[in-house]
């Protein structure tokens, strides 16, 4: 089975199988054709396939007449920030975020510094499929500019956005695991800025992932034991492009990635009240937080692009997902792990509470996530089939289907990044959520055969 | 004449018009095919000065990386330097982004195999098979290697040549030289080379902007400025490289072009005077080579036209010197390839050791008159016409290695259908200009008659 996922904001696959130099050139040529003339940023995470993809993407941008600003290894949120700073036409971020090391992806960013919206995404695919690119004759040498320390502008900006005084006064000791991804080294600079004592693990940036770069309890064991061993206040686990974070408490408890969003949102909404945007798969914890501040919750399709575009359209205050990524209106429209880590620490400092205490303020739900591998061409029909399990019930079909009952909700959807059907259920009772997931899984397994 | 297609895939690689036919997609496919063919070794990646070079280089790097090769970027360098470095660095091959003397909007890719040798015809066939089939062996993500940057690699090439020359003797002559780099990659290294040899040099056409001041073929018609500058500068000689810096033409101290053939003659005479050994040249090189070989009692091997044919014969026979009559000198002590730097070094050493002027040296060889001509003829007829001629002259001393060469006591004529254009090339040489003209005229007429008869 050849895996290639075309999302609205990019293309993702296994390197050497579907992610080949020619595919990268074709896609990036389509992107270069779509953009007006002007500079385009290119950056990547630490994956070993990164340079291969970056050379191809750069060739395509040069051939479509763009000047290229090469950011080298750079976290996606910093690339997104720099698009606006440099008044670039757009950017390509080469990273597969939470996917394992054999994957990689092209993520296309528009001149606003956000992932392509639905309209831009479909225009990109149209140009790609037409296979007609505006290739230039290049009678003058096209420029490739190597930006040295591009993160300095970003950190100078971020410094003014956070309450550095309060954070540094608290003299936090933090453990961080960037999984040898794009966050490596950058975290040294960041926590230095915040006046924290840093215990970093997997911070070589060599692209060898000691575990899958997905911030979730399963991968947080190393961080948890280091938090306890060093008596740290908190532990952070990052994905490979610093767009998602999961947390570990001072007691060494590895928190579900679902906690990151409500913990930051309930602090931020206090001073910046406004609607909250999240996807259909995210925990009800955020609804309880929103209720506290009397603000509405808008549920969208899954994905950074969907929730952030809705945040912009609705003038929402925060947008986030249960996977540990979130964006804030007064920061920038990007899932940003540095902003997240900064605000969690700021909240702990300002409210003078431990992370475990912040967790206790949230209602306790039980969320169960499962997935079924499924041939790509059957994904959507199989998801639709599960309707039969819920005859006569009200169904939200914005993204797969989501059924909300009094005691439980369940969301069944095709992944946009992998050939999987994801099944997520949540309830205040652990057995109830598991029961609902099991019901769907066994139904689907029978269909797949 | 057939109109030139915008994309040309041939034995020497691929060429096309950037933005029209030569796209990053084609470049990366060729690089992926080459990486698949060569296997996962180190591959040098060089380029000439064309503005589209950077874009194509990036596409090539991606294709090489994806197939598990480790690219070594060497930047803008002359072709002989890249061939030399491929061997010196024990690389598995090289890709050069160049379209030699084609117009600015063209570019291309040249492929070099292990040992720094051009791929043989059979190897090119295998490689192109992979390209056409489009099935490449991409490696898994964890097998992708990093790119290596080598910015000063060219000096190794110069050092290798200088180590084989009597540098002190050359320096003592304090030569005054005018050098014409034809706006090619030679300008990267020639200044340093001539400085190490203590020459006082006036350079012309050294800007490597990718646009050429004159046609890069170092033929007398293209060297008018050089001849004038040699006289003005009161130089001992003028050196003219072509755009790839593999060929060298000479201008004497009186500002006269010496004919490309003489570069090879001087190199052969000088090397044989120091080291006896076989010589290999192509069928069209001057018969003065045989005179020199007779003097030193060494054998001469004649080969088909084409640099790789001469190189192959030289390696097989352990030749000490060889090359082509077009100014392409091959000195295998440096590297088995046409090399204008090696040629310039040998000529300067010859001048220094003999104490003579270049015009005096040139006069020291038997004088022959060579004429090169061509005749338009459809490709399919060209081969039959030459074959017919072969039957008529079978009784004479002939060579059928490449077309037909008829060799007489003190003259020869070589008739060869071109592989790339619908023409027959005629070359003749004898001891008098009049006789050479007569030879060309009579064979041309005979060919025209045959073609007429064949096309009836």
The named CATH superfamily of the largest domain in chain A: Alpha-D-Glucose-1,6-Bisphosphate, subunit A, domain 3
CATH fold call of the largest domain in chain A: Alpha-D-Glucose-1,6-Bisphosphate, Chain A, domain 3
Which of globular, elongated, flat, extended, rod-shaped describes the shape of chain A? globular
* Largest sheet geometry of chain B: 7 strands, mixed
How many runs of DSSP E, i.e. beta strands of chain A?
A: 20
Give the oligomeric state. heterodimer
Helicity level of chain A: 25-40%
CATH topology of the largest domain in chain B: Alpha-D-Glucose-1,6-Bisphosphate, Chain A, domain 3
Explain what this protein looks like in three dimensions.
- The complex is a heterodimer of chains A (449) and B (456).
- By secondary structure, chain A is of the alpha/beta class.
- Chain A folds into three domains: 4-152, Alpha-D-Glucose-1,6-Bisphosphate, subunit A, domain 3 (Alpha-D-Glucose-1,6-Bisphosphate, Chain A, domain 3), CATH 3.40.120.10; 169-360, Alpha-D-Glucose-1,6-Bisphosphate, Chain A, domain 3, CATH 3.40.120.10; 366-448, TATA-Binding Protein (2-Layer Sandwich), CATH 3.30.310.
- Chain A has helices at residues 21-34, 50-63, 76-85, 118-130, 151-161, 164-169, 186-193, 221-230, 260-271, 285-293, 304-314, 337-351, 355-360, 379-385, 430-448, and strands spanning 4-7, 10-14, 40-44, 68-73, 90-94, 103-109, 144-146, 173-177, 197-200, 234-238, 245-248, 276-279, 297-300, 318-320, 326-328, 366-373, 395-396, 401-404, 408-414, 420-427.
- In chain A, the strands form four sheets. A seven-stranded mixed beta sheet of chain A has the order 1-2-6-5-3-4-7, with helices on both faces. In chain A, strands 16-20-19-18-17 form a five-stranded antiparallel beta sheet, covered by helices on one side.
- In chain A, 56% of the residues are buried.
- The mean pLDDT of chain A is 95.
- Chain B is an alpha/beta fold and 456 residues long.
- Chain B has three domains: 7-151, Alpha-D-Glucose-1,6-Bisphosphate, Chain A, domain 3, CATH 3.40.120; 156-363, Alpha-D-Glucose-1,6-Bisphosphate, Chain A, domain 3; 369-454, 2-Layer Sandwich (TATA-Binding Protein), CATH 3.30.310.50.
- Chain B contains 15 helices and 20 strands.
- In chain B, the strands form four sheets. In chain B, strands 1-2-6-5-3-4-7 form a seven-stranded mixed beta sheet, sandwiched between helices.
- In chain B, a hairpin with a 4-residue loop joins strand 17 (397-399) and strand 18 (404-408).
- The longest helix of chain B is centred in the last third of the chain and has 22 residues, at 433-454.
- Chain B is globular.
- Chain B starts with 6 loop residues before the first strand and ends with a helix.
- The chains are: A alpha/beta (449), B alpha/beta (456).
